[in-house]
Amino acid sequence: MAKRSKGVVFLSIGFLLLLIAGGWYIFNTVEDENAGKQAAEILSKFETVQSIVPTDPDETENTEPVIKVDGDAFCGKVVIEKVDIGLPIYDEWNYDRLKSAPCRYTGHIATNDMIIAGHNYRSHFRNLKYVKVGDKVTFIDAYGIAHDYVVCETVILDGTAVSDMHAGGWDFTLFTCTKGGEQRVTVRCKRKAE
Q1: Which range has the worst mean pLDDT, 17-21, 78-82, 126-130, 156-160?
Q2: Within 10 Å of residue 159's Cβ, how many Cβ atoms?
Q3: What is the rounded CA–CA span in Å between residue 110 and residue 180?
Q4: DSSP readout, the chain?
Q5: For the chain, which residues make up each domain, given as ranges?
Q6: Which residues are registered as beta bridge partners of 116?
Q7: Closest listed residue to residue 128, CA positions, set 18, 137, 41, 166
Q8: φ, ψ at 95 (rounded to 5°)
Q9: Counting Cβ atoms within 10 Å, is residue 175 exposed (0-12), middle (13-18) or buried (19+)?
Q10: What are the tens digits of pLDDT across the range 115-151?
Q11: pLDDT at position 38
Q12: CA nearest to 83, candidates 140, 132, 35
């Protein structure tokens, strides 16, 4: 009888753990889908507003403009055609913003040191792991000016290696977490020679 009771307890615990895992999977899937929808909506609004922003930086006071979408500031959009990435970029990083679109982590286009962080959502930066050396990355600023880069290095950094993220003097960097969140898929780029 005691063996049977233990078996029922273990089966119940196993079933409960499966339910929790299934619930977690569903939650993550729904969050990913919502993030993709939000990013697409923001990008559409961004592109509409961008079409009326002056294209000559000398026509404005600000050398690195932002476009306001629903009260939030966006500095541009990143496009990596090879892996089907086309996303708006928040001008300032914070965790809540990452749930809807990637963010400028540090740096600027004008100073050739921009770093962009994004979640590992399928609809955001999950495909960064497929980017290869030699691939083209384009950042389109709020003026609509395309800044072309070439991927020079892809690395996996430890999640706590913040100083390594800034090391190397790269012109443009993109990163996202690995599935477990312990490491960062990092794509480092140099400005493409004109």
Answers
A1: 17-21
A2: 12
A3: 34
A4: -HHHHHHHHHHHHHHHHHHHHHHHHHHHHHHHHHHHHHHHHHHHHHHHHHTTS-S-GGGSS-SS--EEETTEEEEEEEEEGGGTEEEEEESS--HHHHTTS-EEEE--TTTT-EEEE----TTTTGGGGG--TT-EEEEEETT--EEEEEEEEEEEEETT-HHHHHTT--SEEEEEE-TTSSEEEEEEEEEPP-
A5: 45-191
A6: 104, 174
A7: 137
A8: -60, -40
A9: buried
A10: 999 999 888 999 999 999 999 999 999 888 999 999 9
A11: 76
A12: 132
Query: CA-CA distance, 10 to 100, in Å (whole number)?
Result: 40
List Cβ neighbours of 164 (8 Å cut-off, separation of 6 or more): 157, 158
- Summarised one tens digit per residue, pLDDT across range 164-187 is 888 888 999 999 988 777 899 999
Task: State whether the Cα torsion 90-64-186-84 is positive or negative.
Answer: positive
Q: Rounded to an integer, what distance in angstroms lies between the CA atom of residue 153 and that of residue 134? A: 9
36 confidence band (pLDDT: 50, 70, 90): confident
pLDDT at 3: 67
**CATH T-level topology, domain 45-191:** Sortase; Chain: A; (2.40.260)
**Residues listed for the chain:** 194
Q: Scanning the structure block, which residue is given the tokens 């300032």?
A: 92
